[in-house]
Amino acid sequence: MIKVYAVALGVGVLGLIVIILGGALAENLRRESRDPGRLLGTNGKLALGAVLGFGMGGMASEFSPLGFNWQVSLLIAVAAALASVLWVRYSLSRS
Questions:
Q1: N or C: which end of the chain has fewer CB within 10 A?
Q2: How far apart are CA 12 and CA 24, in angstroms?
Q3: How far apart are CA 6 and CA 34, in angstroms?
Q4: CA 14 – CA 33 distance, rounded (Å)
């Protein structure tokens, strides 16, 4: 399961970097219609938050010194994904 969490974390971090750098580039070139954050929309941002939260929660629980088995790590990863979706929804409602 560590490989699944690592891939999810890598995809999430890569997506976050693309959104941040792509948004900065679109703003500097004055092409706001090409902003990756706008192109993804709300559902895309929620999906990216879920993938990133799943990867972070899974990796954190797998490498925890408490020695969780894979079922508990999966449950923690799903809870982290849900928490990150709620956080993205909250931050989008504030902007």
A1: C
A2: 18
A3: 29
A4: 21
